[in-house]
Write a structure and sequence with these properties.
Oligomer: heterodimer
Helix content of chain A: 25-40%
CATH architecture of the largest domain in chain A: Alpha-Beta Barrel
Order of helices and strands of chain A: HHEEHEHEHEHEEHEHEHHEHEEEHEHEHH
Distance between the termini of chain B: 8 Å
CATH class of the largest domain in chain A: Alpha Beta
Order of helices and strands of chain B: EHEEHE
Distance between the termini of chain A: 29 Å
Strand content of chain B: 15-25%
Number of helices of chain A: 15
CATH class of chain B: Alpha Beta
Number of strands of chain B: 4
Strand content of chain A: 15-25%
Largest interface: A-B, 16 and 16 residues
Shape of chain A: globular
Radius of gyration of chain B: 10 Å
Number of helices of chain B: 2
Number of domains of chain B: 1
Structural class of chain A: alpha/beta
Helix content of chain B: 10-25%
Largest sheet of chain A: 7 strands, mixed
CATH topology of chain B: Alpha-Beta Plaits
CATH topology of the largest domain in chain A: TIM Barrel
Strand order of the largest sheet of chain A: 9-8-5-4-3-1-10
Shape of chain B: globular
Chain lengths: 495, 64
Amino acid sequence: MNANVISLDGLKVASRDDLTKAIESQGCESSSCGSSDAPEDMDPTTWEKVKDHPCYSEEAHHYFARMHVAVAPACNIQCNYCNRKYDCANESRPGVVSERLTPEQAARKVIAVANEIPQLSVLGIAGPGDSAYDWRKTKETFTRVQQQLPDIKLCLSTNGLALPDHVDELLDMNIDHVTLTINMIDPEIGTKIYPWIFWEKKRRTGLEAAQILHERQMQSLDMLHERGILVKVNSVMIPGINDEHLMEVNREVKARGAFLHNIMPLISAPEHGTVFGLQGQRGPTAKELKKLQDACAGGANLMKHCRQCRADAVGLLGEDRGQEFTMDLVPEEVTYDASKREAYRDWVAEERGERRAAAETAKAETQAAVNPDAEAMLIAVATKGGGRINQHFGHATEFQVFEVDNDGVRFVTHRRCDNYCVGGYGEEDKLELVIKTLEGIDTILVAKIGGCPKDDLAAAGIEAIEDYAYEYIETAVSAVYRAKNGLPAEEAEIA
Amino acid sequence: MSLKIVVENCTVCGACEFECPNAAIRFESDTYIIDPSLCTECEGHADNPQCAEVCPVPDTCVAA
């Protein structure tokens, strides 16, 4: 069912000591690092492009960080899920941003972040506004950053209306990742999502607007694909409007060469002041989203690790350190120091090889020990990144959910537990929230958990396990699966 | 004959500056303003004033 999800396929079980040493030294001390070959479902050229991009590779998102800079605020279309006046530092969702930057400020901020966060591998321009329409600012930002940080991946997100005019410039600038937001391939459906577009000196509405937008989006996709630029298609799933239609979108974008399709749930509430929010249009439930994703199996590869981050997010996908890098905190003059990022990359190259080998071993052990017909299991983990179970339960703002069966361990989704305003609520209320977040999951792996929450979780039917602290996710999840399906976990762990 | 920008409504996105055929719009003290001596309401250039056409907030680019 998840065969078309980009996943890490394979790893080896290292001993606890080796792992601890590796973590303590922040480097790989083992001489048995496996190869870091591309996953089997990708050609080497593509793997080279995506292997360090946290949004394009599920595996990379455990190691690499992205940052967005909001430099291109002008937009050429209006979407019913967007309110351009909205701004709140506590909200985390696309299009929300606290400060807008000039290209010069943005370039300075990128250097400051690169010096502090060695995981940084991608700079994206993703709104508010449209990066291809507000092209002068996008281009100036990329040019400035590229001069100082030539190895950073540049990435942009656009609605596609203005993009065909700039595709060749993208090529000249070595930009090989573009995200197109495509919510429909049927303009009739488009009329319910886009009240207007600005096109050739005129505001167009209704079917005309949706038709033009659709044609330009398809043209963008074709042009990007022809030039070998990887395209991720983002679609907002809006129940009752385009939910079923997104299966057709999935097929169409695959046929036109999209590399990845990211179906995101609509985020909608009256206080956001969007048309959908004010109309009471609801977003899909986690179950509805999963159902649609499953129904798209066999089509374009699906991205399932998207966090729908803010337009000024900084850090690994599960975290946002944007508040540490507001412009008032960025020095007037910053000089890039490449050494930290280089050292980190070397470490990742070895670490990810080990992890892949460990997953491979774990899979083989599971296949040897568990009946192939045994039911798949969902397991939640608390992780700070690096592909390990390394977060304290109480510090987790999200849990990553993995599915395990005889075929190995696959990332399914993440469940957030910070997307409600928790200020003013007690810890107990938060725990209730977490329990609700974990609906349908009865096992959670953490680095550590207090006695009280552990008991409360147990009372709610959720077992919290600390035994696999700092181990690879795949190794631990497999061991739990084997333990539940016959083989004792200890034996499996030591193997 | 010119338009003006209602400051309270403006989101400072700059799309109007971008589209203005007369370069009559500039950013000044945290908002965009229209120079009435340069604004032609786009007569002879487009059917409707471009700033009002592209502005995401209703009733923000209005007759001065």
